[in-house]
Amino acid sequence: MHPATAKWYDRRDSVFIEFCVADSKDVKVNFDKTKCGFSCIGGTDNVKHENEIDLFEAIDENESKHKRTDRSVLCYLRKAQPGKAWPRLTKEKAKLSWLSVDFNNWKDWEDDSDEEMGNFDQFSDMMNNMGGEDDLPDLDGADDDESADSDDEKMPDLE
């Protein structure tokens, strides 16, 4: 038994695992609440591949599916808790020699959503999205007649 080489990536509501086996036959994919099992016979030499993954978080096994192509088997695992990032695919932190991150499809999707951001991200986004000084509330309450650009003098050159 050889584990199949696999790549994975994280999305907001799902995790994708691609088992890289060309010309696979007898493909079996089992989705369990916290596990994913994969087996097939692959290649011209009919090698039996088998992988068992204890998943980082629970999935919705009824909404998860897989698709076989001539080059690989792609598994779509629906997260039980959408919107929660998976820092790794496996429950254990151990490095599996057959598993790697699919950097071509990896996306820091957490940056896309305001409600999922931590306070710091929300704060820095708020600062970046603010326009000029006209948008800021008048914090000191004083009605200055000076123009808003009075402090925009040329800075001396650094030496």
UniProtKB/TrEMBL annotation:
InterPro entries with a match to the protein in the record: CS_dom (IPR007052), HSP20-like_chaperone (IPR008978), p23-like (IPR045250)
UniProt pathway annotation: Lipid metabolism; prostaglandin biosynthesis
GO molecular function terms noted in the UniProt entry: Hsp90 protein binding; prostaglandin-E synthase activity; protein-folding chaperone binding
Chain segments annotated as coiled-coil in the UniProt record: none
Region of interest (Disordered), ranges: 113-159
Pfam families per the UniProt record, alphabetical: CS (PF04969)
Key words, A-Z: Cytoplasm, Fatty acid biosynthesis, Fatty acid metabolism, Isomerase, Lipid biosynthesis, Lipid metabolism, Prostaglandin biosynthesis, Prostaglandin metabolism
Compartmental location: Cytoplasm
Gene3D superfamilies linked to this entry: 2.60.40.790
Transmembrane intervals: none
Principal location class: cytoplasm
Domain CS: 1-90
Enzyme class: isomerase
GO cellular component, one term: cytosol
EC number(s) recorded for this UniProt protein: 5.3.99.3
Catalytic activity from the UniProt record: prostaglandin H2 = prostaglandin E2
Acidic residues bias: start-end ranges: 132-152
One of the GO BP terms on file: telomere maintenance via telomerase
Family that this chain belongs to: Belongs to the p23/wos2 family.
Name of the molecule in the record: Prostaglandin E synthase 3
